[in-house]
Amino acid sequence: MSAIDLTLRGQAAAVASGEADAGELLDASLARIEERNPTVNAVVETFPERSREMLEAAPEGPLHGVPVVIKDEWPLPWRAQRFGMAEMLDEAEPGESGPYRALRDAGAVIVGVGNMHEAGASSTGNASVYGAARNPWNPERCPGGSSSGPAAAVGARLAAGAVGADGIGSIRFPAAYCGLTGLKPTFGRSAMGGHHMADVTTMIVSGPLCADAADCRLLGSALLGEGLAAGDPSGLRIGVLGGDVVADDVAPEVREACEEAIAALAEASGGEVRRVALPDLDASALAAVLIANGEGLGGFDPQRLNRMSPELTPLYRGFAKYRMLMPAAAMAKAARVRTAMRRRLAALFEDVDVLAWPTVPAVAPPLEAPLVDLPSGTISADEANVRGAGLANLTGIPGISVPVGLSGDGMPIGLQLLAAWGRDELLLDAAEALEGANGRRWVESVPPLAAEQTEA
To answer: Taking the alpha carbons of 129, 134, 139, 144 in that order, is the dihedral positive or negative?
Structure first.
């Protein structure tokens, strides 16, 4: 097997032992991007000379010589972030962002910038100034957003790891759609410097997108600046909802795969599944949307909004202006919901270790019409997805999406696990236990694009 097809930790180990040459690994990643990226549009820019300069200066860190993709949400010393937009509404300049420094200090090499949904404003990834990123399992389907490019890049095996950002599910959605493991760390724990919202957000975090939990542990440790130590998830108490839209209004094959995975995790850990209630979960999704959009208003004014580039999508231009009309009373109520949900979760996590439900209620929809069919009817993917994702961002707790199956039409299915504040390591432990329970079947599955070309 070529080093480019190894796991992230496999690449790091091969370079460290001398079995693989870091320069050749970088060249292989650049060649893979040139070969496969036209199909998935995951990487919007490469800079071979800058990447080679990073490699030459790379310290002997845990990711020494390993190529990584970074989302178009942070500046690099040689490139300003663009947020997938034709025009940034805030100032954007090149610089040493927190994720860049974290990767550099770990010895990693940034091989390219990942595409993202315009302004991070959707869970689908179907709109960007660079053109939509595409799902490596089926290029006519959504890759998830807003970290669409990082997920599609790892799914297509352009790189073994990527850095995404999660404001309302934006790591977990594409992880589920692309069959990856994606960790949303506890708020404030991962590198965020240089992000244009870093000083005001109470929602957004950086995090890893990789094939499996062990790779997420390695890349996540770099982003957090501390080792995410492995532990023993024995006796795991798994909380599941009943009678709630997040658990019940789910496509049948997604529900079945997630239920089987939860049962397997309980058996593998010697734990148990407990029915729990979490009132007002639907309100938490709305509160998360209100707060996330309210926090982004600081740099807006009517004159600036009226001068927006016509190259921005009409949907985003209309939405940006609508945000100026949000009533203060709604923001105050959203803050009250946040307080209530934090208290409820604190009490709930005394009785369970993790909460589990589908990351998204249906598999990736078509790029041209991102609608999903659920028991309640056909609705937009954005409306459906936020219901199960907003809670983690609203309250700051960590969450992870783990692949647990494929649909009848060959699209990945993801299970989300949530844990108490600061228990990121437990989520990784639980994810690894689940991988063991299913014989690593799903984390080692690759899309046809990667499988056919690797075998060839």
So the answer is: negative
Whole-angstrom distance, CA of residue 434 vs CA of residue 432 = 5
For residue 371, give both structure tokens: 């609608």
Domain hosting 261: range is 3-455
* Chain CA centroid to CA 5, Å: 21
The CATH number covering residue 121 comes to: 3.90.1300.10
Res 446: pLDDT = 97
pLDDT on residue 455: 45
Task: Answer whether residue 386 shows pLDDT above 90.
Answer: yes
Strands 161-166 and 205-210: antiparallel
Beta-carbon count within 10 A of 327 CB? 9
Distances (CA, A) of 266 to 43, 54, 239: 38, 44, 11
Work out the pLDDT band at 129, boundaries 50, 70, 90: very high
Q: Under DSSP, is residue 146 helix (H, G, I), strand (E, B) or coil? A: coil
Residue 336 dihedral angles phi and psi, to the nearest 5°:
-70, -40
Q: How many CB atoms lie within 10 A of CB 68?
A: 28
How far is residue 139 from each of residues 36, 162, 387, 442, measured CA to CA in Å?
Answer: 12, 19, 26, 20
pLDDT digits (tens, 9 = 90+) for 275-325: 999 999 999 999 999 999 999 777 777 887 888 888 899 888 887 887 888
Cα angle at 325 between 321 and 328, to 5 degrees? 140
Distance separating alpha carbons of residues 371 and 348, to the nearest angstrom: 33
The angle subtended at Cα 165 by Cα 365 and Cα 305, nearest 5°, is 85
Residues β-bridged to residue 285: none
Please tell me the distance from the alpha carbon of residue 295 to that of residue 316, in angstroms, as a whole number: 17
Q: Which residue has the tokens 């799914």?
A: 155
Amino acid 452: pLDDT: 59
Total number of domains constituting the chain: 1
CA 48 to each of CA 56, 82, 153, 329: distance values in angstroms, whole numbers, following the listed order: 12, 20, 17, 50
Residue the block writes with tokens 């509160």: 287
